[in-house]
Amino acid sequence: MTFSRRQTLAAGAAALGGLAAARLAPWAVPAAHAGAADAYASASGEIVVHPRAHASFVMTAPGVTIYNDPVGEASLYADLPPADLILITHHHGDHFKPETLAALVGENTALVVNPTVMEALPAELKAIATEIANGGETEAKGVAISAIPAYNTTEDRLKFHPKGRDNGYVLSLDGQRIYIAGDTEDIPEMRALDGVDMAFVPMNLPYTMTVEQAASGVAAFAPKVVYPYHYRDSDPMEFARLVGEAAPGVKVVQGPWYE
């Protein structure tokens, strides 16, 4: 996977400020500003990642635009192509907002959700949705989709994401294998992944995992590129440092999730 920055790294360095930017390790790539997009070569063109907020992002690829867990006002997505495919990992409010979905769904939009979200969908959205549970597979808009478990393992966090309920997703998209972790800890199913080109991994307490857990899990399955997302007050630069030490071949990309 070849990486290119739509907004130049020079612009990102300027935004961070001279000395601080100069000290960034090569595996910690800063986003230039809110709305920045990152482009990656794919089989027939490029995949472009557009971080929006927290766990919400959009990927554009040849022939398809994918929205992941879109929440917030519909205006947050007004500068992007309409959704061909929308993925929802689970029903929590920072991942699933029916009002946002209703505003973003078009006549030909496909919707892929976990069983809990399917139960919560209004009738008009349920009619266009495909439900897959952990271990399930489907195809939508030419994208092969596998549902990967996403759950907590630490005793005092089990109530947030019990095993078997929520999804992560692995997508086969224009020759690239993309892992969207959803809300999870450092689970065996994540560590067992192979051949991942791009990953999106959370790291906030108490709902997902620590920075150290996230870095350890990423080092185990070693994607070519990883975005820390869904991290709130966690330190993404510390994550980048730990990944750089444990798996120097993994490129950590810092997106503008909270700007």
UniProtKB/TrEMBL annotation:
Keyword Signal: yes
Signal peptide coordinates: 1-34
SUPFAM superfamilies attached to this UniProt entry: Metallo-hydrolase/oxidoreductase
Keywords, ordered alphabetically: Signal
Gene3D superfamilies (UniProt xref): Ribonuclease Z/Hydroxyacylglutathione hydrolase-like
Protein name listed in UniProt: L-ascorbate metabolism protein UlaG, beta-lactamase superfamily
Residue ranges of coiled coil: none
Keyword set includes Signal: yes
Segments crossing the lipid bilayer: none
